Amino acid sequence: MARQIRxxxxxxxxxxxxxxPILVEAERLEAQGHRIxxxxxxxxxxxGFDAPSAxxxxxxxxxxxxxxxxDARGIMSxxxxxxxxxxxxxxxxxxxxxxxxxxGVSELITMVLQAFVDIGNEILVPAPDYPLWTGAVSLAGxxxxxYRCDESNGWNPDLADIESKIxxxxxxxxxxxxxxxxxxxxxxxxxxxFVDIARRHDLVLMSDxxxxxxxxxxxxxxxxxxxxxDDVLCLTFSGxxxxxxxxxxxxxxxxxxxxxxxxxxFLEGLRLLANMRMCANxxxxxxxxxxxxxxxxxxELIVPGGRFxxxxxxxxxxxxEIPGVSCVKPQGALYCFPRLDPExxxxxxxxxxxxxxxxxxxxxxxxxxxxxxxxPDHFRLVTLPDVATLTxxxxxxxxxxxxxxx
Length: 406
Known about the structure:
By secondary structure, this protein is of the alpha/beta class.
């Protein structure tokens, strides 16, 4: 009998349910001829969002010179543009040498954690979170420790809960701001609270800010590094995927600020990993300077009348009209994270719930425990379809929930 070839033990605790079993089931239904509305991934392109034409033109114009490897840290124009971007936002000490370009934020998160985490190190991660963070910590051999974000307080992190979960083995604190999946945008006081905790406990801050330009109404984004100063090491992750609608380009960066002299060994390891993957996608790096320095078309999408705004507000309003469903108003990002009242919907297995919804209404969403939420009483809905499509989709969800109530 042939030996069974099995996956690495390192993957045993790694999950990424946004593209997990529910997507496999959706693809099976599509193969049978069903049309599935996929509201599980924040990918603007399938919903009619095009990148700014200037970005496309710049990539095309530079394609003939982008055939070889670049510096492993990224091309100079891209790194300079990112450094200058942060300089104009109060981080005046950021230099080109502090920037590393990667194939999207996802690659950089994984690289940073591989360079930073030793077996058994604890990393504080929000719940709910973007599940790559939990998965990448586990893959690196670390232990993700989830702190609770408080739905009754606008999904703001519970700073006391964070502090209560710090042990001598805690090495870093992750924040996602604006938050995926909740849409929360943290106040200056909350961000300063994170920095104070990191300072008191000698933790590295890892700040995922990929949605920093997608803000609604009076929400204001605060860069964590602004308050971290010279004594707290802070790694700020961002990129072009969402605000500039080029997810497929895989163009992102991490900026390192704070006391780099105490982190030289870690940063040497990060450079080693950057060298091992040779470089980030070179054609897409040419989009960065044009994106950051050009006209910010995202501003048209996030105000009343703009698609991102109108779709998010429509989804929030319609979800709250469903009996037994409540949803905190998103302040940013591209998602709603509604709660299903357990007294009305006694769901035990929320993954099975979204699979049943998929079968019944041909709509694909993601279950809340897929974002490492503690109870099976939430799901995440992507708000990228146009208002008419989104209205129909939530109507179908409402119809299915009415059957459960009945």
